[in-house]
Design brief:
The chain is α+β, with helices and mostly antiparallel strands. The chain contains five helices and seven strands, in the order ααββαββαβββα. The strands form two sheets. It has a five-stranded antiparallel β-sheet with strand order 5-2-4-3-7. Strands 1-6 form a two-stranded antiparallel ribbon. About 35% of the residues are buried.
């Protein structure tokens, strides 16, 4: 079984339940899947394996798309995917943002679905990378450098499950609703007035 990735920068609420396992590092089948996005997978994989601590730039659109979100919203999004949905595919973090690997075609459809459902303004700006785009992915072996991209959920299989646009749409909606509900709960308990007088009404007759 693969080990869990315990990233101290993320709360445990975004991690899978105890019955699930998330790869902490890229396995050989996972590396093969990533390399399959290249025109010449074997050559790309050989170069990457020769420099396992170096990030790689991979094209999107054929094997996967990438939905790039602010880290704080990404935490809420992952929480919804793991607690209320089917889980996530591979996920990386880089420069204060979270990159969710998604099914091809998601980059084109997700923004349109959010606008159609009138949630586009409520969701933080998403950077959706699809056909014609390329992204920097974390190295095969982590360097433990905060400024470098790193895997939160590393690919560990030749055919990882990837969320599609509908799955990510409703995860976004639930994340926005959860944030709004939390803010409402906080607002109904305003800070106590330090100068206010407090009376013991339990002694009233």
């Amino acid at each position: 079984m693969t080990a869990w990735l315990r990233d101290p920068s993320l709360p445990t609420s975004v991690l899978p339940d105890a019955g699930e396992h998330v790869a902490a590092r890229v396995t050989p089948p996972g590396a093969g899947w990533l390399a399959s996005a290249e025109t010449y997978p074997r050559s790309a994989l050989a170069q990457w394996e020769a420099r396992p601590t170096a990030p790689a730039v991979l094209p999107c659109g054929s094997v996967f798309d990438v939905v790039n979100v602010p880290a704080i919203f990404g935490r809420r999004l992952l929480d919804q995917l793991w607690t209320e949905g089917p889980g996530s595919g591979p996920v990386a973090v880089h420069r204060g943002r979270m990159m969710l690997f998604a099914a091809p075609g998601t980059a084109q459809r997700l923004p349109s679905l959010l606008d159609w459902e009138e949630w586009g303004d409520a969701v933080p700006p998403l950077l959706c990378h699809g056909m014609g785009d390329a992204v920097t992915v974390p190295p095969l072996t982590s360097t433990n450098t905060a400024s470098e991209p790193r895997w939160l959920v590393a690919p560990d299989t030749r055919q990882p499950w990837l969320p599609g646009p509908e799955v990510l749409l409703w995860a976004c909606v639930r994340a926005v609703r959860a944030k709004a509900s939390a803010e409402v709960r906080i607002s109904i308990f305003p800070p106590a007035d330090q100068d206010a007088k407090v009376y013991d009404v339990s002694r009233r007759r």
